[in-house]
Structure to design on (237 residues):
């Protein structure tokens, strides 16, 4: 991923978790729990590649969901930003997670072998992939790479935010986005202004279309609590 987005996250990583909780009214925890529950597959032992793992909250949620279902899971926490991963490393240590490996790499050329991953996840990164300056095919590259590394029968679980489907929720978000900008200005105004813009501009229909073109089947989309977050799951045949 381009250095511009990388540097933006390095500006906000210390406050990233706090801002997510505040701006979402703590709904982000429920959203990750929903995503983590989708990750649990029939296998008693499986691996998960968490792309754009950031500060590790989704990886932690996945680990807890697996424990609750008495499953053994090995997680690769994969991200391009070393500062975010340093935060994740500390949190994994606090959770006593020894079943996780931290990896630095790009989502557009994932450093894993083809057909090697049972489940691939990503939370709150699709908008970044779709808005890399000078690369209009960023999201398509990520989807293609996701398909490549998944084993036949593997599953992808994608969580992100976009404009809600219902008009009253869209109207509320348009107003609330100014509050988000005001809150974000206390950390880094330019970064949070960019993040708000990516929510408003993200095309969910194009995401589904690109996944179909890549070869994914059984694509399932649903809105989550508040309407602004959504979850997409699909299978590699």
């Amino acid at each position: 991923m381009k250095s511009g987005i990388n540097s933006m996250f390095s500006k906000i990583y210390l406050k990233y978790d706090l801002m997510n909780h505040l701006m979402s009214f703590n709904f982000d925890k429920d959203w990750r729990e929903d995503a983590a529950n989708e990750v649990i597959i029939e296998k008693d032992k499986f691996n998960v590649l968490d792309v754009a793992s950031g500060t590790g909250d989704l990886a932690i949620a996945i680990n807890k969901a697996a424990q609750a279902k008495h499953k053994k899971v090995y997680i690769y926490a994969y991200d391009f930003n070393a500062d975010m991963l340093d935060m994740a490393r500390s949190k994994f240590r606090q959770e006593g997670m020894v079943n996780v490996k931290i990896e630095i790499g790009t989502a557009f050329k994932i450093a894993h072998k083809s057909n090697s991953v049972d489940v691939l996840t990503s939370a709150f990164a699709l908008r970044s992939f779709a808005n890399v300056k000078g690369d209009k095919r960023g999201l398509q590259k990520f989807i293609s790479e996701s398909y490549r590394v998944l084993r036949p029968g593997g599953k992808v679980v994608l969580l992100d935010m976009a404009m809600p489907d219902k008009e009253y929720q869209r109207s509320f978000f348009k107003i609330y986005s100014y509050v988000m900008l005001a809150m974000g200005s206390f950390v880094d105004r330019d970064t949070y202004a960019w993040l708000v813009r990516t929510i408003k501009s993200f095309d969910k229909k194009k995401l589904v279309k690109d996944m179909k073109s890549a070869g994914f089947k059984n694509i399932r989309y649903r809105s989550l609590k508040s309407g602004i977050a959504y979850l997409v799951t699909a299978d590699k045949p």
